[in-house]
Amino acid sequence: DADGLVFLVEEVPRKLRRAFDTAIAKFGLTRTQWRALAYIFRSPGLTQTQLARCLELERASVGHVIDQLEKADYVERRAVEGNRRVWTLHLRPKAIGILPALRAEADVVYERLLAGISDDEVAIFKRLLAAMSANL
Question: What percent of the chain has pLDDT over 90?
Fold first, then answer.
């Protein structure tokens, strides 16, 4: 039934977030901080506004996250030449050093998530989720 499906669709991300929180706790990072590092790694030089869009958070909330990451020496803000109001975000060596370990933790969570599910089943599920997303 549709209710059972929707409940499961909501339950999986909640459990996935909890699994990620547990996996990265040893690094002293929150899930939002980890995601911010991942986006900055993929796109060095993002602005705070661009990162806020990626994370689907308010710019002020992302500013707080960046403040924390900067304090921990994971990220640095660099002024944009000619525009003193815009800063780009870049990873510091300390963040680059822990990225492989964070990637490994994510891979372990993904393995748990997909245990016993074939590649074909994953492909079908992705198509179904994409269709549901498009429907909404």
Answer: 89
